Amino acid sequence: MERSLSLRCGCVIPRSLPQPPSFSIFCHKCEGLCPKECKVGTKTIDSTRAARDLAGCTLIEGNLILNIRRGDNLASALQGSLGLIETITGFLKIKHSFALISLSFLKNLKLIRGDSMVDGNYTLYVLDNQNLQQLWDWSHHSLSIPVGKMYFAFNPRLCLSEIYRMEEITGTKGRQNKAEINPRTNGDRASCKTQILRFVSNTTESDRIFLKWERYRPPEYHDRLSFIIYYKESPFQNVTEYIGQDACGANSWNVVDVEPPLNNEQEPGVVLQSLKPWTQYAIFVRAITLTTAEERRNYGAQSEVVYIRTMPAAPTVPRDVISMSNSSSHLIVRWKPPSQPNGNITYYLVLWQQLAEDSELFVNDYCHKGLRLPTSSADTRFDTDDGEGQEDGEEQQCCPCQSPVGQTPLRDETVSFQKKFENFLHNSIIIPRPPWKVTSINKISYRIPKRRRDTFAVTPLPGHAFANTSSPEVLGNGVTPNRTGSSSSKTEKDFRIFEDKVVRDRTAISNLRHFTEYRIDIHACNHAAQTVGCSAATFVFARTMPEPQADNIPGNVTWEPAGKNRVLLKWEEPKNPNGLILKYEIKYSRESEKVTSVVCVSRHRYTRNGGYLLDLLQPGNYSAKVRATSLSGNGSWTGLIKFYILGPVEEEEPGNFYVLLTLMPVVLMVGITCLAVFVFLYNKKRSTEGYPSGTLYASVNPEYFSTSNMYVPDEWEVPREKITVLRELGQGSFGMVYEGLAKDIEQEGEKTRVALKTVNELATTRERIEFLNEASVMKAFRCHHVVRLLGVVSQGQPALVIMELMTRGDLKSYLRSLRPEAENNPGLPPPSLRDMIQMAGEIADGMAYLNAKKFVHRDLAARNCMVSEDFTVKIGDFGMTRDIYETDYYRKGGKGLLPVRWMSPEALKDGLFNTHSDIWSFGVVLWEIATLAEQPYQGMSNEQVLHFVMDNGVLEKPENCPQKLHELMTWCWQQNPRLRPTFAQILESIKDDMSAAFRTHSFFYSLENKCCSSWEASDTETEQLLLSGEEEEEAAPAPAPPQGAPILNGNPLLALGLGRDPLQSQPTNFCQPNGKVGL
Question: Is 991 exposed, middle or buried (0-12, 13-18, 19+ CB in 10 A)?
Answer without folding.
Answer: middle
